[in-house]
Structure formats: structure tokens, C-alpha cells
Amino acid sequence: MNPMQGEHYVRSQVAAPAIALMVISACTFLWYLFAAVMVLFAGGLSFLGGGSGDPGALLGMGMGSVIYGFFALAAAVTFVGALRMKNLKNYGLSITSAVLAILPCTTYICCMFTMPLGIWALIVLMKPEVKEQFS
What is the pLDDT of residues 79-103, one digit of tens each? Predict the structure, then answer.
């Protein structure tokens, strides 16, 4: 196979799962970023002095925002890895992105969407001709 035909073929193979992962991970990132902000500030604006100041509520809001922040970070890594996959750069990050999409503990609410996309991306990434084209 001609090297240019091979690259074109591989780009067509990775484009769909990469774009799908980018879309769903961007939506997931925005959702969890919104959730983290809402947990911090929707509880009577306790951190700004407008709430009851209950230590348990403050701790709960802090922990909730950290957990949502972790989910947002996982979604951001998934997005960057999917972008790199689309551009045939950084094979390791592309695999990491697909694995993060599969793990339900990193996508939480969106796992029913990201899990099949992550599996699809892994199947494509494991093809020898795809792996060869990554720089």
C-alpha cells in the first residue's frame, strides 16, 4: 500500500471515534464544571459568607466540588487524547483517552455514551496499520 494511501485510510478509520469522543467529552467536561460550581455556590453561597456556615455542609460542598473537578479533569484528558488521536499524534495519550472513556468511574453520568465510544476507539487503535501511522 502506498504510504499516502495508508495515512488517508488510517485517518478515515480514526476520525469517527475521535470526533465522537471529542464531542461527548466536551459535553461531559462542561457538565461537571457546571456541577462543581453549583455544588460550591448553590448551597446558600456558604463560601461567600451568605450561608449557615455549618462545617458539615462546607465539607460536603468542598468534597463534592473536588469529585466533580476530578470528573471534569478526566473529561478534559479524554478530549485532548481524542484530538491527538484524530491528528495521529501521541499514541499513548490516544489509548489513555479511550481507556478513560471506558471506565465508568471517570465518566460517571455519561458512561452509557462514552463506554461504547471508548471501546470503538480502542478497537481502531489496536489495528497494526493504525498504530504504524502515529508519530
Answer: 999 999 999 999 999 999 999 999 8
Q: Is 109 helix (H, G, I), strand (E, B) or coil?
A: helix
- The closest of 22, 5, 9 to 85, measured between CA atoms, is 22
8 A C-beta contact, residue 21 and residue 78: yes
Contact 122, 78 (CB under 8 A): no
Per the structure block, which three cell numbers stand in for 45?
Answer: 453561597
Is 85 in contact with 72 (CB distance < 8 Å)? no
**Residue of 4, 97, 104, 111 whose CA lies nearest to 124:** 97
Cell 501521541 locates to: 90
pLDDT band, very low/low/confident/very high, at 60 (cuts 50, 70, 90)? confident
The model's pLDDT over 105-121, given as tens digits with 9 standing for 90+, comes to 766 666 777 889 999 99
Instruction: Determine the Cα angle at 29 with ends 116 and 118, to 5°.
Output: 15
Q: Where are the alpha helices (DSSP H) in the chain?
A: 3-41, 55-86, 91-102, 104-107, 111-125, 128-133
